[in-house]
Amino acid sequence: MLGAIAGDMIGSVHEGRGTKHRDFPLFTPHSTFTDDTVLCVAVAEVLLEGGDFVDAFHDYFHRYPNAGFGGGFMGWAARRDRQPYHSWGNGSAMRVPPVGFAAGSLEEALELAKRSAEVTHDHPEGIRGAQAVAAVIFLARQGGDKVSLREEVEARFGYDLSRSLDEIRPGYGFDVSCQGSVPESITAFLEADSVEGAIRNAISLGGDADTQACMAGAMAEAYQGGLPEALRRETLARLPQDLRHVVETFRTRFALA
C-alpha cells in the first residue's frame, strides 16, 4: 500500500491548486501524509489484528486530528459516532487499498471493501467506489492485463472508462464524490507505465489531487509489483514511527515488495 501513501504525500501540495500538468517535483519540503494515509493505515491495522473498523477510524482520527479529514468524517469521528452518515464521498475509496493487497480472492476483496466503507459511507456510490478500487488492486496483483481490468470495471461497476486523460483534463475540477473521482483515478492508472507515472497522471487532472493520486498509486503498485527503491525509501522516511510500523508489518505479512 506504499503506492497509496506515496500518492497522498506527492499530491498533498497540489490539493486545491488545480494542477493541469505532469511536470512537477515529485517531493517538496512540504510534501506530507494526510487523512488518506492515516485511514489506509487504520484499515491495514484491522486487517492485521482484527477488530472493528469504527473503533480503528475513531482512534486514528483522535491520534491525528489535523491530518485534513473531511467535515463529515471529522464530525463523525470527533463524536465517536457509530452510525454511518450515508456519504458518497471518495473517503471510502481512498482508504481501501490495503484490502486489495490483503484479500485472498476477488469475492473477499469486494466484501472487505464493503465492510470498510459502509461504517461511514453507506451510500451505494460510496460502497461502489471502494469496491472498484479494491477490485482493481486485487486483479492487478493477479497479473491481469489492463484491457481485461478496464472491461471488468466497466462491466461490474458500470463506470465509463472510455475517455482518455487528455479528454477528461480540460473540463475536470475538484470533485470529492466517488462517482466523479474514482473512474478518473482508474484511468490515470491505466494510462501509466509506472507508479510515478500513475501518480503524475492523477495529479495532472487538477481535481482532488492527493486522494486521486493515492488511489492511482495503489493500483499502479499492485500492477507493477512494488515501488522503485528511491520512491519506497522517500515515502517511508516521511511517515511517523507508529504509522511506519503498521505499514512495514503489513508489507511483511502480505509479502509486498
What does this entry look like structurally?
The chain has 257 residues and is mainly α. Helix content is 61%, strand content 0%. The chain contains 15 helices and no strands. The protein has helices spanning 2-12, 35-49, 53-63, 71-78, 91-94, 97-102, 106-118, 124-141, 146-157, 165-168, 182-190, 195-203, 209-224, 229-237, 241-253. Helix 1 packs antiparallel against helix 13 and helix 7 (106-118) runs antiparallel to helix 8. The longest helix is centred in the middle third of the chain and has 18 residues, at 124-141. The chain is globular and about 40 Å long.
Question: What tags apply to this protein structure?
Answer:
mainly alpha
Number of helices: 15
Oligomeric category: single chain
- Helical content stands at 55-70%
Based on Cα principal axes, name the global outline. Answer: globular
In angstroms, what is the radius of gyration? 16 Å
CATH topology: ADP-ribosylglycohydrolase fold
Task: Give the tally of structural domains.
Answer: 1
Strand-residue fraction? under 5%
Order of helices and strands: HHHHHHHHHHHHHHH
Tell me the span between the first and last alpha carbons: 10 Å
| CATH level-4 homologous superfamily | ADP-ribosylation/Crystallin J1
Major sheet: size, sense and barrel closure?
Answer: none
Q: Determine and state the CATH class.
A: Mainly Alpha
- By DSSP, the count of extended strands is 0
* Low-confidence spans: none
Mean pLDDT: 97
Based on secondary structure, the structural category is mainly alpha
CATH architecture tag? Orthogonal Bundle
